[in-house]
Amino acid sequence: MQNKSVNHKELKRYLFFGLIVFCFFGCTESQLKNDDDGKTVSDQDEVCKNEVCDTIRIPDIEGYLTLKCDFHIHTVFSDGLVWPDIRVDEAWQQGYDAIAITDHIEFRPFIDEVKGDHNESYKIAKRRADQLGLIVIKGSEITRNKPFGHFNALFLTDSNLLEVRDSLEAIDIARRQGAVIQWNHPGRPDTKSIIYAVHEKMMAENKIDMVEVFNRSEYYPLTFDWIDQYDLAPVANSDIHDSIRIQYGVEKMSRPITLVFARDRTEFAIKEAIIARRTAALFNNTIVAKNEWAEKLFWACVQRRNTPINQNTARIELKNISDIPFVMHYSANVSVLLPASGTVTVTCTLPGTLTIDNIFTGYKKNLEIRIPTE
Predict the structure, then answer these.
(1) Strand extents, DSSP E, 210-278
(2) Of 37, 278, 292, 353, which is most buried, counting CB atoms within 10 Å of its CB?
(3) CATH classification code of 300-371
(4) CATH number of the domain at 57-289, please?
(5) Domain boundaries, the chain
(6) What is d(CA 264, CA 273) in angstroms, rounded to the nearest whole number?
(7) What is the mean pLDDT of each run of 10 residues along the chain (374 residues)?
(8) Whole-prediction pTM value?
């Protein structure tokens, strides 16, 4: 009997404890689950994740803002697989300042399911971008086989007017709207970056402003010379059709980036910078730019301190404050890796020269930096 009485008391104790636990978690659940909006803790966590964006650390240079941009993006309004406002969310979450929606004029495989004219994808993206503070540029892709190839017209007012048979007429219509013209993936589809007669004519008439030296995961080394030879702004774009995560993963700076050195963070300033050719192309930790902007970008990213050793030699401390690692050498046999957010020291004769192996100012031509003596 004694044992039965003890078990009965223990049972009541367990039931009492269980009731307290039930009340505590029941009340907690009622507090964490809001009947008005139906969001649970996991829902709120997901909302918080969606409101977090990367910060790409690439410093501003000499009075210009360094804006991170992608000028070649597709949606379901051409042959992309993603709705326009999702493109805005992707770019914002990855730390971009501006994108251009550039759906094909000639190619709309989902037109029976996705209704709207050639301006609709921009309108949808713009509404979302205004909520997030992202800049969205209205663009369209003019798509032909080689020798003409593919071109993006950016800063359009009405994309519908580009739907004409003649490709050069479409370019002229875009130019009359004040558009800048970007030469897309010149090495595709035959892996040959060739300047045909039609391109010579267009450049002679100042009808090409930009050239993609990087597109998706491709690069076109011969185009590195074109940026000076034909005075073109180098750009790097995703040309994304699938979701960014599927194409590039979730790592920061995994997709191509066009760096625009703009007077302020506005669409007008981006256009002005492109016309002035103040851009750099960045992908896979490789930069292509005109020499002036390449050198200014490097010294914006890298801080220097000289410690003299004797009259002709000094120890040079280089501190990288950017997310871009730099590979360099200062003699035929001495290479140096300056990691992102890292610091290295080199000992060299002054005045010396550093060759930056992952910054190109032309075909097989790397940026060379003179190290001042002071």
Answers:
(1) 210-215, 218-219, 233-237, 257-262
(2) 278
(3) 2.60.40
(4) 3.20.20.140
(5) 57-289, 300-371
(6) 10
(7) 41 40 38 41 52 91 96 95 96 96 89 88 97 97 95 98 96 98 94 94 97 95 96 97 90 94 98 98 97 97 90 89 95 86 88 91 95 72
(8) 0.85
